[in-house]
């Protein structure tokens, strides 16, 4: 149960932790459950967040935000608080010191009774956390769980070469046309993802018909470069996407451009999906809980469902 809760929490931040992996953690302390996740690169890791939430619940603490502050405070003030606790984390606690201190070294001193690790860290320089915990006398179980691997697959791929996914919004009965389909919260979420990606690919017909901006205005984030995938190179340059500052816009009839990028999202409709569905690593569907009498889109595809999350819309992750 502890690991399942950690997995579900981590999915809430999938892609948003780029270039870090999505990681979740849970802990039971004094018969109370706490669940948290890594939320943004450079900020506290999942283990630190959940440890801090638990400690704050039972103690009066200062307002601390950074990993270094929290690590230092817990090391000085834990007084054996976590000694009878049980913890689960989806990815092996890091052994190295980077933008944040080592989570494994912190746990070594806080000394929970047991730590269940969903998947061993695939990056050699980061691994070794399980051994640090075992050597400290902590009961450690490493599962190499498939669901935990699914969580970090994007990280593994963009760390080695690149990761590409297709995002498609649809109604419950499979309509993808007719203006905005997804909820306002889903639109904001997509803008959060655009802030993290390096390159956004979109089809030429979608650009001509929808005249999109493809920016991050809902969150005032970084605007990704755009590749318009089209055989016809002529476009009305008054279309808003051409006026967004601080990014490059390419118009090309091949995908060679992706060699220069690590994290890539494709947004498009039926034609582009059918053309690229076997090229991408993952597919992400935003399914709006409404019906529309417009024409349904037509695809033939067999998906492995990785995760389904209920928000204002359903978010379906698959490969």
Question: Please, could you describe this protein's structure?
Answer:
It is a single chain. With 319 residues, the protein is of the alpha/beta class. The protein has 2 domains: 156 residues, 3-Layer(aba) Sandwich (Cytidine Deaminase, domain 2); 157 residues, Dihydrofolate Reductase, subunit A (3-Layer(aba) Sandwich). Helices cover 29% and strands 22% of the residues. It is built from 9 helices and 13 strands. An 8-stranded mixed beta sheet has the order 9-8-7-10-6-11-13-12, sandwiched between helices. Helix 4 packs parallel to helix 5. The radius of gyration is 22 Å and the shape is elongated. The two termini are 25 Å apart. The mean pLDDT is 94.
Which SSEs are present, and which pair or pack?
Blueprint: H1 2-11, E1 24-29, E2 32-37, H2 46-58, H3 67-77, E3 86-89, H4 103-110, E4 114-117, H5 129-135, E5 139-142, H6 146-160, E6 163-171, H7 184-196, E7 199-203, H8 204-210, E8 225-229, E9 249-252, E10 263-267, H9 270-276, E11 282-288, E12 305-310, E13 314-318
Parallel strand pairs: 3-4, 4-5, 6-10, 6-11, 7-8, 7-10, 8-9
Antiparallel strand pairs: 1-2, 1-3, 11-13, 12-13
